[in-house]
């Protein structure tokens, strides 16, 4: 019994080749700009024949700052400021070289941070 088990484990199993995927993360302070950039990326990838998943809206990161209004007294009187960082995630499955070239030539609006992982 042990011999049969050892024989099957040493055989080479046919594994499919790993699928190539591009993951694009977008970050911006303005939600309108990030949505516009995401739609440009999706439109370009679909035009070149790649399968696109997204844009997936990720949770908005909110940083709040409390500032005392008066320089001397009255600590109870404070102002709150916040910075909202909007994020989107786009996955491109099976990108062709034509897709990569089109994405490299893409002109996106200023104020959008892009992180690309292969």
Automatic annotation (TrEMBL):
<keyword id="KW-0687">Ribonucleoprotein</keyword>
<dbReference type="InterPro" id="IPR018268">
    <property type="entry name" value="Ribosomal_uS10_CS"/>
</dbReference>
<dbReference type="InterPro" id="IPR001848">
    <property type="entry name" value="Ribosomal_uS10"/>
</dbReference>
<dbReference type="GO" id="GO:0003735">
    <property type="term" value="F:structural constituent of ribosome"/>
</dbReference>
<dbReference type="InterPro" id="IPR036838">
    <property type="entry name" value="Ribosomal_uS10_dom_sf"/>
</dbReference>
<keyword id="KW-0689">Ribosomal protein</keyword>
<dbReference type="InterPro" id="IPR027486">
    <property type="entry name" value="Ribosomal_uS10_dom"/>
</dbReference>
<dbReference type="GO" id="GO:0006412">
    <property type="term" value="P:translation"/>
</dbReference>
<protein>
    <recommendedName>
        <fullName>Small ribosomal subunit protein uS10</fullName>
    </recommendedName>
</protein>
<comment type="subunit">
    <text>Part of the 30S ribosomal subunit.</text>
</comment>
<comment type="function">
    <text>Involved in the binding of tRNA to the ribosomes.</text>
</comment>
<dbReference type="GO" id="GO:0000049">
    <property type="term" value="F:tRNA binding"/>
</dbReference>
<dbReference type="Pfam" id="PF00338">
    <property type="entry name" value="Ribosomal_S10"/>
</dbReference>
<dbReference type="GO" id="GO:0005840">
    <property type="term" value="C:ribosome"/>
</dbReference>
<comment type="similarity">
    <text>Belongs to the universal ribosomal protein uS10 family.</text>
</comment>
<dbReference type="GO" id="GO:1990904">
    <property type="term" value="C:ribonucleoprotein complex"/>
</dbReference>
<feature type="domain" description="Small ribosomal subunit protein uS10">
    <location>
        <begin position="23"/>
        <end position="117"/>
    </location>
</feature>
